[in-house]
Amino acid sequence: MRLPLAAALLLSTTILAGAQEPQKEFPARLLGHALLPADTMVAAPADAPADLKVSGKFTTPGKRVEAVGTVMGLSGGRPTGISTPFQGQPVQGFSGIRSLGNGEFLTLTDNGFGSKVNSPDAMLFFHRIKADFAGGRIERLSTTFLHDPDRKVPFRIANEGTEKRYLTGADFDPEAIQPVGGKFWIGDEFGPYLIRVDATGKVEAVFETMVEGKPARSPDHYAVTTPAAPNLPVAFNVRRSKGYEGMAQSPDGRFLYALLEGPVWDEATKANEQRDGKDVLRILEFDVQGEKWSGRSWFFPLEQAGLAIGDFNMIDATTALVIERDNGEGTADRACAQGQRGPDCFHDLARFKRVVKIEMTEANVGKAVRKIGFIDLMKIADPDRKARQGAIDGVLPFPFFTIENVDVVDRAAGVIVVGNDNNLPFSSSRDPKKADDNELVLLSVKELLEAK
């Protein structure tokens, strides 16, 4: 990504000239739709502690529930039809993806049930899956469980006293994964941390996040503690659940680009980091060979206050795809009456669900990335009736609360993949009364990928 000075200056002039240009919307056409049923489980390894054979025992605040299938999952107060605890571990929501070719993908499962407190029995793992877009099915080919037998994690983990030391959602919240040189790099939301594991899932290193030479820490970072008295301050600069949500790698694998989901708190201004009146998210560069943060970063401006990002992967050395979304779910055809809520309707509709193409170059290091254009995931054209569920009059909306997977599948053909995180059993975005499946959609977006 490092360009000669003359080229950088030319790019800088171009960016400045077009900085105020509005983003252009491009079309998206559905090529395929594959599903993994919501209630899909994987057994804990034979050498895992007995506690991990059943997951979701702590999803009821203030209570421990042992009886399998006795606590109904809720989405916005609506029963989803699937109950915890689970016998086994839910394959559930994918929070990161990389295309491996031939319809195969590397996918990362989220931390479990949404927080450190309720996920100590949720194992952390990633999968190799195969999507049969013609048949509409997703097959799990293998699962790799994260573990820390060499005690590389710098804090006490949930399974500290065991030999294998399997990691759980009380330890990390994995949100992004990148394979580099036979290793796997995982972006965590809790710390936020950057984790390197080998092909077996064994932790080799954990890196603390540095921004402008200082640690970036959320209230879930092990070094952030509750003060001894109520009048004493507690210091952190990343909001809970706003650590890494996406992470890309340079085409040569030399750098990782870790993208925070929320703005860093600026202690000097007592406000979120902003550029031109918009909250911005840091894209931090990590030198893989040097195993250190380079000190360079870019800023991703959110179009509206309250939006978040879902995933991030490079197209080439200077352009990338980012999911930008709101927290709504569901479609207008099943909306609740004005001001009402109910078990069979959506009260907070999905409105802003986009895949955005950005440009990040030498010229805009330390500045906002250039947003080139976007596709609207709420209006994916389906003229060939490829949708397996959810299509409305030849259009497939993707109305999920969390959409956390995007990658290029075939750049020459203009094809990408997009997937949801189904937050099992806490999301029902297709049907207000039914827990969401894991869905992958194959999209034709050639105009977006070719846009300059």
What number of structural domains do the residues give? 1
Number of strands: 34
Largest sheet: 5 strands, mixed
Instruction: Flag low-confidence runs.
Output: 1-20
Q: Radius of gyration in whole Å, from Cα?
A: 21 Å
Q: Indicate the percent of residues in helices.
A: under 10%
Give the gist of this structure.
By secondary structure, this protein is mainly beta. 4% of the residues lie in helices and 40% in strands.
Structure description:
With 452 residues, the protein is mainly beta. It has one domain. 4% of the residues lie in helices and 40% in strands. It is built from two helices and 34 strands. Strand 32 and strand 33 (415-421) form a beta hairpin. It is globular, with a radius of gyration of 21 Å. The two termini are 17 Å apart.
